[in-house]
Amino acid sequence: MLHVLIHLDRGGGPMTSDVISAMLSTNPVVVRRTMAGLRDRGYVLSGKGHGGGWSLARALSDITLFDVWDAIGRPELFCLVASNDHANCLVEIAVNEALETARHQAEALLLARFAAIRLSDIADDFERKMAALGLDPAAPFPAA
Questions:
Q1: In the chain, at which end, N or C, are there fewer CB atoms within 10 A of the end residue's CB?
Q2: Are 43 and 56 in contact (CB under 8 A)?
Q3: Neighbours of 5 (CB within 10 A)
Q4: Is residue 54 part of a domain?
Q5: Pairing label, strands 53-56, 44-47
Q6: Which residues, in sequence order, are CB contacts of 8 under 8 Å at separation 6+?
């Protein structure tokens, strides 16, 4: 969704779920479901009919990585799964506790960093990379 939001900002107009789904190689229904969370939080708008589609409701400088993560349902950040093969084994219990503590600490650090990164920071970095390649960052760019 970060990719999509920056494209919405730099793309020059609304994008339909079909266009976004092609860009992400997914189904338009998945796009609509995911974008709905962003719409419900006031980050995007959806327009119907000719010329409709998804557009930004806020400036990228007003949206953080944390905001997007939160709006799309707070997906798991790490896939560490505790073992429950030997639930009474004290070694397994100690390992699981250590993994859970480390995971919670890592998540807290990552989420704090997410809250400090604005989408405009990412978009600005994109523009610097384009300029370094001698490309016009203001020129329209393809959706994929």
A1: C
A2: yes
A3: 23
A4: yes
A5: antiparallel
A6: 14, 15, 44, 54, 55, 56
Measure CA 16 to chain center: 18
Query: Would the pTM count as exceeding 0.70?
Result: yes
Q: How many CB atoms lie within 10 A of CB 31?
A: 23
What is the domain count for the chain?
1
Q: Tell me: the pLDDT tens digits for 45-78?
A: 999 888 789 999 999 999 999 999 999 999 999 8
Answer for the pair 17, 32: CB distance below 8 angstroms, yes or no. yes
* CATH classification at residue 55: 1.10.10.10
Q: Has residue 105 been placed in a domain?
A: yes
Q: Domain range holding 69?
A: 2-132
Please indicate, yes or no, if residue 109 is contained in any of the structural domains: yes
